[in-house]
Amino acid sequence: MALTTPRGPLGTSPAGWFSEPLPAGAVYVEPHPRRIRAVRDGRTVIDTERAVMVHRPDRIHRYAFLADEVGDLPHKPEPAAPGYVVVPWGAVDAWFEEGRQLVHYPPNPYHRVDCHRTRRALRVDVAGLTLVDTDDTVTVFETTLEPRLYVHPTHVRTDLLRQSTTSSYCNYKGVATYWSAVIGDAVLEDVAWSYQDPPPESLPIARHLSFEVGKCTVVADLPDAGGQR
């Protein structure tokens, strides 16, 4: 979602700026020369290396395919790419890019995750108890998102945490496991999350925890990502 999220260059509140304003509603289309496969009822119904990626302001990026490559799948024309059509994500059972099964939407070639071991301090308090107080952290810089600190569980009062039933998925960090804080008889749901088995680009934060600012008192030594114009 890097180009088209609200803080991306095609978003409504971009973090940076162009030297000259883009025309309203500008759409960016580019070749996406990776093998894209779609499977329905156990049969491959799309198999191409000629897809394009469409980046539309404030919309999730999407594939578009040459019309003769989608067979009888439901589709509609892509106005920004004449001759190409868009197939609804749910029209097939599974999507694959270069052999990797996708969830929710295609990975974005402009989205990057950088994980750096740092000495940035992190303190987390919940209900008057300190869960974390350390400067042995990993800073995650992720395209168009605010920087965030992760911490190894050896620096966390994990005796006060309990795995919840909540989970979510990120194309760049994998499946998130959520943790609730148990303070006496009180349970504060989903105060933290971790990625137990992230993809290679996010391995430095495997099993590390990050904490939800709205549910904990978090004091984090982070750079100001707002910038100045």
Automatic annotation (TrEMBL):
Highest rank taxon of the organism: Bacteria
Transmembrane segments annotated in the record for this chain: none
Gene3D superfamilies cross-referenced by the UniProt entry: Domain of unknown function (DUF427) (2.170.150.40)
Domain DUF427: 123-212
Recorded coiled-coil stretches: none
Xref: Pfam families: NTP_transf_9
Database matches in PANTHER family: BLR5716 PROTEIN, DUF427 DOMAIN PROTEIN (AFU_ORTHOLOGUE AFUA_3G02220)
The protein's name in its UniProt record: DUF427 domain-containing protein
Species whose genome carries this gene: Mycobacterium alsense
Organism phylogeny: Bacteria, Bacillati, Actinomycetota, Actinomycetes, Mycobacteriales
